[in-house]
Write a structure and sequence with these properties.
Layout (H helix, E strand, L loop, with lengths): L2 H24 L10 H7 L4 H6 L2 H5 L18 E5 L5 H10 L4 E6 L5 H7 L5 E5 L5
Bound molecules: S-adenosylmethionine.
Length: 135
């Protein structure tokens, strides 16, 4: 059993993720080889009318690599948990889909994503929460 080595690897991976998304929360367009922001969301098939309703701070920091909403519809009143919600783009799209009777929780390792979600103005029922130590 290699506990010390595992702990070191865990810390290294965690730090790598935190640093990568720290930069992404400031200027995502410089970090990834794939498109980010609104153009990316439209290219991945998010409905343009929904994309336009997501406040700019989250829309501009969208760094998703797929469209989870393509898997099936989310209905009014449902509860959604977004694991690794970043700056909140998908959580906000989900909040629009579930409406005021639904609930959306966004969880992310990095607290640095939170200010963008606050600036975006979370709809009622969209509660940010945190799964890791504050960064
Ligand atoms: C590709 S981004 C998510 C993009 C997001 N869906 C959006 O709308 O822009 C991946 C996110 O997962 C988070 N993450 C990675 N590993 C995590 C973990 N173990 N627990 C919680 N969040 C994690 C990162 O901090 C990052 O914000």
């Amino acid at each position: 059993m290699e506990v010390q080595g595992d702990e070191h690897r865990f810390k290294t991976i965690r730090q790598g993720i935190l640093e990568k998304y720290r930069v992404a929360s400031v200027s995502p367009e410089t970090l990834f080889r794939y498109p980010t922001g609104e153009a990316s969301a439209l290219g991945l098939g998010y409905p343009p009318a929904l994309v336009a309703r997501v406040p700019a701070p989250s829309r501009e920091r969208f760094v998703g690599v797929g469209n989870p909403f393509a898997l099936g519809p989310i209905r009014q009143g449902e509860a959604v948990l977004d694991l690794g919600c970043g700056a909140g783009f998908d959580a906000l799209v989900a909040a629009l889909a579930v409406g005021p009777t639904g609930r959306v929780a966004g969880v992310d390792l990095s607290r640095r994503c939170w200010p963008w979600r606050r600036a975006a103005g979370l709809p009622r029922g969209c509660q940010p929460s945190n799964s890791g130590r504050p960064t």
